[in-house]
Every structure is written in structure tokens, then in C-alpha cells.
Amino acid sequence: MAKTSVTKAGDQPKPYHHGNLVGALISATVELIEEHGVEQLSVREVAKRAGVSPGAPFRHFRSKTALLTAVAEQAMDRLTEAVARAVSDVDSTDPAAAFEAIGQGYLEWAMANPTHFQIISSRTLIDFEASSSLRDQNGAIREKMVELLARAQHQGRLAPDVDLDHLVLAARAYVYGLARMAIDGHFPEWHPSEPPAIAVRRALRLFMSQMIVPPRCDLRKPKKSS
Amino acid sequence: MAKTSVTKAGDQPKPYHHGNLVGALISATVELIEEHGVEQLSVREVAKRAGVSPGAPFRHFRSKTALLTAVAEQAMDRLTEAVARAVSDVDSTDPAAAFEAIGQGYLEWAMANPTHFQIISSRTLIDFEASSSLRDQNGAIREKMVELLARAQHQGRLAPDVDLDHLVLAARAYVYGLARMAIDGHFPEWHPSEPPAIAVRRALRLFMSQMIVPPRCDLRKPKKSS
DNA sequence: CTACGGTGTAATCAGTGATTACATGCAAGA
DNA sequence: TCTTGCATGTAATCACTGATTACACCGTAG
Fold it and tell me: Which residues bind DNA (chains A, B) (predicted)?
């Protein structure tokens, strides 16, 4: 615990070996992106914040992209965990509820961690294909979605002839679009009294009620469910 | 027409004044982004391709961001035109069809011009707020969507208590998500026999049939409509 | 013909990602 | 304990970037 560093100059004689440079670099990267945006990020600034020379990061990450990919992996771990937690909070016998929980968890996390989400979802800043961790976790969520829809379909809550892959694609695109629009600032003109988070949450519910489990034939009946 | 340039060295004595540097710079920018991606873009390369010195572009665009914003404005003009053309091709008395046409036109254009779309939709590469052209055209499309939904609602094809802004947001997020996922390479693992364009097109139709004009109460009846 | 103003050039700046040769100090083996 | 090995960090350096400045060029209005 004596090595989390903070580079308090003048305090310690600045041990030559940092102790945990990799972790410090990743943290510093996230901080700097949150402060000045990902476009402004420079490895030199990351090194400076970690209290280390400009070339030091390249001992651990062969390129800036590799550094950002490491950040993305850490972020993906947290996203996966957040989604899993959201799913575990709902009735496990209700696949549609679990399906919605995935979307909810995903959106909540993305909006609470815009920096991390931005890095994960970019395919130009990071080397997605090179990271089996990223690919695997991404694929796992998709498979989980298909599985849940299959269960819903088996319970008769979905038409038997609906292509699950198509529906999963639609759901992914919807959630992805909502998250990116919110983070990219595409609807700053929304009702001032209503933060994007609420609009996004309601949009997800709208999608679920229409696409996954059609609740009733006509929309005219206002529904005052919980 | 004698000035479209191409910097044929040795041909002409290289007229000191380019003639239409602004246009040439924008074209060169688009070309270079298509070749090496937007991350790799440098103003120097743009200048070189336009056959001009590295500092010349800054006489017309005060910054790299300003150059990209100009590209975005050109792109938005074309997108608006493409959407308008798509709308004009459908029955003008059918607001739902026009609504779908907007989405179709948007998606088709985005997938045919990924570079332009990428620049338009980014809020970090360009200065969106500073360009009234971008803001106006963006807002015009949204207003058109609301208007069409209002007409559909008036025709009884939508529940009278549905919040049109919410529905428009949902539709925008869906289309935006589809376009970005396709362009950002988020589903390269799709059926190899089925290019993303087709998957995206069908996804849009799925959305329309479920969200805008609920065709029937239960999904079980396979529908072989046109 | 001349002065002027818009256009492009050349030189230059600080800052960037990346590489290299070189210091440093921890830890294992004698 | 000494010393050797090696991972870790440093310093110097490279080519390149966005951006600025002073200056050269040239079509044109007077």
C-alpha cells in the first residue's frame, strides 16, 4: 500500500523503481482523458502525471494505442461486472426482464463512465482485434442476449419465427446509439428539466415494451405500472 | 474548369495562385481520410496533396478543426440532399412511409459515405456549435421527423398520447446506432453472405413495423407483406 | 504604371509518438 | 558478502505535427 505513488516531490527520495507503473499509467491516462478529452491525450503528459520520464511508458506499452487498449480492457472488465450485477438484481426466471437489465446496466454504466465507454467503443483509438479479452467479453454479452431471447421465445413471449440474431442486433444498435448520442452531446437541447439519463432510461423502456414483449395491442391505454 | 489543379509538375510553370485552394483542400482532406483514417490526417499531407506549402491551408482555415468543420458542412449538405431525395420518392400522403424514408436515406447515405458520416457525427473533431449550417440542417431533419409523426398521429396511426419527441429520439438513436456500429466495425462477424447494408436495412424495417405503426397485436402471425 | 491587398512561401516554434543507448538498483547464485 | 543478471527507468534524439510569423508573389483598381 506504500507504493500507490503520487509522486510527492521532496517527500521521499523518489525511488528509482516506481513499484506499479502500469497501474499508475492507466489511472493517469483515464484522469487526463477526463480532464482534457481523448484527442488531447499525450503519452508525455501521462508519464509526467505518473512522475516518470517521457519514455518510461513505452517500456510497458509499445505504443499509445497499446496503452489505450489496456485502459479499454480495464473498462470492459468493469462494464461486464456492472452488467452482470444489473442482471443478478432481477428475477432470474424472467428472461425479458434480464434482457432489459442488460440494456439498463449497459446504459447506466456508459453514462456514468463516459470516458471509459468512449474508449471501449472506439475502434480507431484501440486495437480491439488484438485483445482477446475485449473480444471475448463483448461476445459473451451478445451470447447472453441471444440466450435470454431464446428463453423468452420458448416461454411464448416472442413470436417463434423471429430471428433472434436480428432482434439482438436491433437492441444493440439501439442501446449503442443512445449511449453514444448522450456521450457525444447529440441531444443537449433536451428538456432542461430532464437530464439525458432519464430520457435515455425511458427510451429503453419504450423499446422493450414495443420490441420484445408487446404488452398490449394498442398503445392508447395509458399504463401506470411500477 | 482549367484550374481544378492537380499540380502536374513540369507541365505548367505552377501558377502562384492555386485558383480554388479551399475546394481542393476539402477534397484532399476527404481523400486522405478515406485512405488512412481520420486519426492519421495531417494538415501537411493535405497541403502536399493540394500541391501547396504546409502553411498555406492555415490562410483559409485557422485550425485543423476548422478544416474538418468545412468538410462536415459539405457533407451535411449532401446528407440533407440525400434524405430529401429519399423522402420525395415515397407517397407524400403517407407520413409513416416518409418517416421511414428519412431513416432509409440517412442510413444508405451514411454507409455509402462512411468518411463523411464519421466527421459529421463526431463532436470532438469538428466545431459543431460554431457552425450554424450544421446546427440548422440537423435541426431541420428532426423537425421534419416530428411533423411527420404528428401527421401519422392525426391519421390515427399512432396512439394520441404518444410523446412524439420521445419517439423521434428513439428513432434517431436507433438509426444513429446502426450507422455508427456499421462504420465503426462493430459487427464484422455478421453472416458473410449478408453484407451489413442488408442487415441494417432489415433492422430499420423491423423497427418501423414495431415502433411506428404497430401492424397487429401479436407477432406470431407471419406476415408476407411487400 | 504604380500601389495595394489577397494569396502562397519559407523559416521557425513548441510539442508529439517513438527509438536508442545508457543508468540504476533489486534479487538470485557463488 | 560479493557479483552477476536483468527488469525498470532515464536521457538524448529522431522525424513529424499543428501553428505562427515575416516575407515573396501577383492580379487588379486607381
Answer: 42-61
